[in-house]
Design a protein that fits this description.
ten-stranded mixed beta sheet; BirA Bifunctional Protein, domain 2; binds adenosine-5'-triphosphate; binds magnesium ion; globular; four-stranded antiparallel beta sheet; 40% helix; Threonyl-tRNA Synthetase, Chain A, domain 2
Length: 609
């Protein structure tokens, strides 16, 4: 079964058999979530609806969502972890719960292919449920549902085999809350036997054994508790189901392959690499090949998103830069010469353009950014080597036979010079590298950047605090004001809100003058002073557009959309949530206006507390 048939089958199953509405994949860059750089799961763009905002298409939704997990980058090179992947998901927003969710998951997996399922063998499958702890009881309900389909609870000491139910703690079988407080609950996971031999730990650990004899294919999360600020859990009023299944992993099983990289989603890119450089298929080269194939696919999707991310040293731009440079490095070590990343990207664009037309639309940008980045990186390599040659006499003069760790780290961090190349140059010059000291500097640096990341996280994924709502409202007022002052070419290109400030990216070709900034502020403050009520209506995309609502993110909401009205001043397609009245914002101040990319400006602003 090809990946495209699999996507279709999943959607059709949930639409036709169980009355779900299909929604399109949201952007890979979260629209109003300051806590993460990328959409990491299908539920992510749906947070407002899981928190209780009504969704225009109802209570049962299904989609295929583009995801990026930078946390998994280190694992790429194994058979099942990818930086970019597609997540198939179905949701109940306060509608059906455990019985239906498990029934449909099971039926979709086990119904024969000739009918509307995937025809997977139940005897190759294991499931897991939450074992219970001081916060919440064992999920006996979920286990009882699995028993209806012939699964049996694993006895203590029983050897791992298909058809069993295992119980695990929070680490494995619990989701959320996303921030400190909010919806959370137990989940049930489905695993499938890869057919590989068991490792010595398998019988003890069960299907979650990290040797990946069994791989996790699907996760059904049951949001049934609310974690309160005092750390206790209470039953949630709106109980939701949120499921996620990895498309590439399922395709691997259905195509009887050993690894995601052998499926139709990767094989053309891999074959191209093998044509470009005739390397031996050693296990080390196979790992490099997977990394290049994975990273180039992720880079193509990130560059190809309508958001207009380009390689840079911050945020998403930094991630894409690292992905491209790591691909180039591994490509070079496989023996690929000349610019090659855009060729691999071209293959992915061709494979995916029918499902993700934005790739075709943004093709020129993807290709030109890759070529530019490849040139820049070549330059970096030259510069790093020059710096190395410059340092070399000093090191040799001191009769060191080892390059000090901090010097190596400086080459790595400041010059962007890859460690492998530093090691190679050292070897050529009879030097060793002080790996322990290098690792020490590296760790220190990582801890510092992690501290930065935690600070960012304090907003919380599900943070719909009053401050965030008000700042979100302020971005709508800001966009409307900018369109009055600068013109109708202004469109939102990105937004990032924390409890402290808003950050708004928009299209505009040049720096704003101080007069334009003052005028924009003045307009927003006037609208705040007018105390306009904020209303929300539901309509079709076309109707919203005819009525002059703006919204570049309409693809996300399906045919019915929500429009937020702030008096007559601003009409914008948006998922919410917002303040009740513009007056709640008290006042508005722009702190900074700067460039982020060609044709895109960024404003940071605050409101009165
Ligand atoms: P794992 O333990 O294998 O890393 P996970 O617990 O992180 O998986 P979830 O967050 O539950 O996975 O995501 C739901 C589904 O998405 C998983 O069951 C899996 O099929 C898929 N998935 C998760 N991470 C990846 C990844 N990095 N690459 C490919 N598919 C993934
Ligand atoms: Mg994971």
């Amino acid at each position: 079964m090809f990946a495209k048939d699999l996507r279709r089958k999943f959607i059709d199953f949930f639409v036709e058999r169980c009355g779900h509405k299909e929604i399109p994949s949201a952007s890979i860059i979260p629209e109003h979530d300051p806590t993460v750089l990328f959409t990491t799961a299908g539920m992510h763009p749906l947070v407002p609806y899981l928190m209780g905002e009504p969704h225009p298409l109802g209570k049962r939704l299904v989609d295929v969502q583009k995801c990026v997990r930078t946390d998994d980058i280190e694992e790429v090179g194994d058979d099942v972890h990818l930086t970019f992947f597609e997540m198939l998901g179905n949701w109940s927003l306060g509608d059906y719960f455990k019985a239906e969710a498990i029934k449909w998951s099971y039926e979709f997996l086990a119904t024969p292919v000739k009918k509307d399922g995937l025809g997977l063998d139940k005897n190759m499958m294991c499931v897991s449920c939450f074992e219970g702890d001081k916060d919440a009881p064992r999920d006996a309900e979920a286990a009882a549902e699995w028993e209806k389909y012939g699964f049996k609870k694993a006895e203590s000491g029983e050897s791992l085999r298909g058809g069993l139910i295992y119980f695990y703690g929070k680490k494995q079988n619990w989701w959320g809350p996303a921030g400190q407080t909010g919806p959370c609950g137990p989940d049930t996971e489905m695993f499938y036997d890869t057919g590989r031999p068991k490792c010595p730990q398998c019988d003890k650990i069960g299907p979650a054994c990290p040797c990946e004899k069994y791989i996790e294919i699907w996760n059904d999360v049951f949001m049934q508790y609310n974690k309160k600020s005092d750390g206790t859990y209470e039953p949630l009023k709106q109980k939701n189901v949120d499921t996620g299944m990895g498309l590439e992993r399922i395709a691997t099983l259905l195509q009887s392959k050993k690894s995601c990289f052998e499926t139709d989603l990767f094989i053309y890119a891999i074959n191209r690499l093998r044509e470009m450089a005739k390397y031996e298929l050693t296990s080390e080269n196979l790992r490099k090949e997977k990394i290049v194939a994975d990273h180039m696919r992720a880079a193509t999707f990130i560059l190809g998103d309508n958001f207009g991310v380009v390689p840079s040293n911050v945020d998403q731009g930094y991630v894409v830069r690292r992905l491209i440079r790591r691909s180039i490095r591994h490509g070079i070590s496989l023996g690929v010469s000349g610019h090659f990343t855009h060729q691999i990207a071209g293959i992915y664009i061709k494979i995916y353009k029918d499902v993700y037309p934005e790739l075709e639309k943004n093709k020129d940008r993807i290709i030109s950014e890759l070529v530019k980045e490849e040139e820049k990186f070549a330059h970096t390599l030259v510069r790093g080597e020059r710096e190395f040659q410059h340092l070399l006499p000093k090191i040799l003069e001191k009769k060191f036979d080892t390059i000090p760790g901090d010097v190596a780290f400086n080459l790595y961090e400041t010059y962007g010079f890859p460690l492998e190349l530093i090691e190679e140059l050292c070897r050529e010059n009879g030097l060793k590298i002080d790996r322990a000291a290098f690792d020490e500097s590296y760790k220190k640096h990582q801890e510092m950047s992690r501290a930065g990341a935690t600070q960012k996280f304090s907003g919380g994924l599900a943070d719909h605090s009053d401050e965030v709502r008000k700042l979100h409202t302020a971005t709508h007022l800001l966009q409307a004001a900018l369109r009055q002052v600068l013109g109708n070419h202004v469109y939102q290109k990105g937004s990032n809100i924390t409890a402290e400030r808003l950050r708004f990216d928009f299209s505009h070709p040049q720096k704003m003058t101080p007069e334009e900034i003052a005028k924009t502020e003045k307009i927003v403050n006037e609208v705040i002073a007018q105390n306009l009520p904020i209303r929300c209506g539901e309509t079709t995309v076309d109707e919203a557009k005819t009525r002059g609502a703006i919204g570049v993110f309409d693809a996300k909401y399906g045919d019915k959309v929500k429009v937020y009205f702030m008096g007559d001043f601003s009409k914008e397609i948006c998922g919410g949530p917002h303040a009740d009245n513009t007056g709640n914002l008290k006042n508005f101040k722009i702190l900074k206006e700067e460039a982020v990319a060609a044709g895109i400006r960024r404003i940071k602003a605050v409101i009165g507390k």
